[in-house]
């Protein structure tokens, strides 16, 4: 997770700052197409890795608290977890590499912008779809984490309630 945070500092933050100062202008041609997709792909990988880390940590904590005497040796190996985190972040970010392209700026066509095909000028229905699909990357892990913790709290509360009745 620390490595992912360093990558966010080195990749995402400079890209975000350049986006503001260049008004989203991008390089034209094949180089611009490759760099647009590559930079956005790296952005999403570095943002997906900490989310996967938190998800894996919550599952590990759940298993450790719910089954305190079981070891789960294969699940708790750090190397396996690191590979799983980065592999899942890489795989879930592939659609970003495919959907980000260079577009000519719509009003005057004098420069290119780097954007998703869902944000292409004149494609408002795609923009709505993009707005609805992107939060799923964050909502699915949140739902899993919330479900695990809720399940644990209710199971502990049920045990305490049953013990108080006896």
Automatic annotation (TrEMBL):
Main location per the UniProt record: membrane
Protein's UniProt keywords contain Signal: no
GO molecular function list: G protein-coupled receptor activity
Keywords assigned: G-protein coupled receptor, Membrane, Receptor, Transducer, Transmembrane, Transmembrane helix
PROSITE patterns reported in the protein's UniProt record: G_PROTEIN_RECEP_F1_1, G_PROTEIN_RECEP_F1_2
Gene Ontology cellular component annotations, sorted alphabetically: plasma membrane
Membrane topology: Multi-pass membrane protein
Signal peptide per UniProt: none
G-protein coupled receptors family 1 profile domain ranges (all copies): 1-166
TM spans (from-to): 42-63, 83-100, 128-154
Subcellular localization(s) per the UniProt record: Membrane
Record-stated family: Belongs to the G-protein coupled receptor 1 family.
UniProt-recorded name of the protein: G-protein coupled receptors family 1 profile domain-containing protein
Lineage: Eukaryota, Metazoa, Cnidaria, Anthozoa, Hexacorallia
């Amino acid at each position: 997770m620390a490595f992912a945070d360093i990558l966010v500092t080195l990749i995402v933050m400079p890209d975000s700052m350049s986006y503001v100062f260049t008004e989203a202008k991008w390089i034209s041609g094949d180089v611009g197409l490759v760099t647009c997709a590559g930079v956005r792909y790296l952005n999403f990988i570095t943002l997906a890795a900490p989310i996967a880390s938190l998800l894996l940590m919550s599952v590990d904590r759940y298993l450790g608290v719910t089954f305190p005497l079981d070891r789960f040796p294969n699940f708790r190996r750090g190397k396996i977890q690191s590979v799983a985190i980065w592999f899942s972040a890489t795989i879930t970010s592939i659609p970003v590499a495919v959907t980000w392209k260079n577009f000519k700026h719509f009003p005057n066509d004098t420069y290119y912008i780097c954007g998703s095909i869902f944000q292409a000028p004149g494609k408002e229905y795609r923009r709505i779809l993009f707005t609805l699909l992107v939060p799923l990357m964050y909502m699915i892990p949140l739902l899993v984490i919330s479900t695990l913790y809720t399940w644990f709290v209710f199971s502990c509360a049920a045990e305490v309630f049953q013990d108080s009745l006896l």
